[in-house]
Amino acid sequence: MRPAIFLDRDGVIVENREAYIRSWADVSFIPAALEALRALARSDWAIIIATNQAAVGKGIITLELAHQINQRIIAEVVRCGGRIDAAYLCPHRPDEHCDCRKPKPGMLLRAAYDLGLDLSRSVMIGDAITDMQAARAASVRGILVTTGRGLSEWRAFADAPWFDVADDLACAIESLAPLERVAR
Ligand SMILES: [Mg+2]
Ligand SMILES: [Zn+2]
Questions:
Q1: Is there a contact between 130 and 148 (Cβ–Cβ < 8 Å)?
Q2: Bridge-partner residues for 87, per DSSP?
Q3: What is the dihedral of CA 2, 125, 27, 83, to 10 degrees?
Q4: Which tens digit of pLDDT belongs to each residue from 77-120?
Q5: 33-40 and 63-79 helices cross at what angle (nearest 10)?
Q6: What's the chain's Rg over C-alpha atoms?
Q7: How far is the CA of 48 from the centre of ligand 1 (A)?
Q8: Cα 141 to middle of ligand 2, angstroms
Q9: How many CB atoms lie within 10 A of CB 39?
């Protein structure tokens, strides 16, 4: 079974928008994220996006458009030499109490089931405490990046010893122990 790197999307790969990413015009990649994903592409890690998109449940964007934006982000990653093996999207509002919206681990567990992943060797990289909570609930190592909302989230939960912190996606990937996987 392969280990996975689960990636939150907004605040990790692309910049957060205060009022949600509603169209391709709202998408701007975080510096060095594309290069980091290119470096990761030749590794053994399964690379999986797990993103909350409550804008869908709130009727701000359609599910179809949310998937289209996801696919276009992935296409841009691929165009730059990177790889995304799968993408999971929770369209629900918090008050719908689904099993997939982070901090619930549903998307990670579903991916493990679908793709045969070894969660005990997997990592979740996100900019929100809810990403870290989802990681913990799935027994996955969490790395909080201080891009996106990460810095304020880290300050609010600085006494929490149960996740690691990195400056950005590139630093988070560099901090992973089996660097030779990446270098090969
Ligand atoms: Mg985020
Ligand atoms: Zn959901």
A1: no
A2: 49
A3: -20
A4: 999 999 999 999 999 999 999 999 999 999 999 999 999 999 99
A5: 70
A6: 15
A7: 14
A8: 21
A9: 18
Contact in structure between 49 and 84 (CB atoms under 8 Å): yes
Cβ neighbours around 41 below 10 Å, total:
17
**Which positions are annotated as active-site residues?**
8, 10
Distance from the CA of 97 to the center of ligand 2, in angstroms?
A: 7
CA dist., res. 143 & res. 139, Å (int): 13
Residue owning tokens 């918090």:
94
The Cα–Cα gap between 3 and 61 comes to 33
Task: Convert the pLDDT of each residue in 11-46 to its tens digit.
Answer: 999 999 988 999 999 999 998 999 999 999 999 999
Which tokens belong to 152? 């304020």
Amino acid at residue number 61:
I
Q: Which CATH class is domain 4-108+135-183?
A: alpha beta
Residue type, 70: N
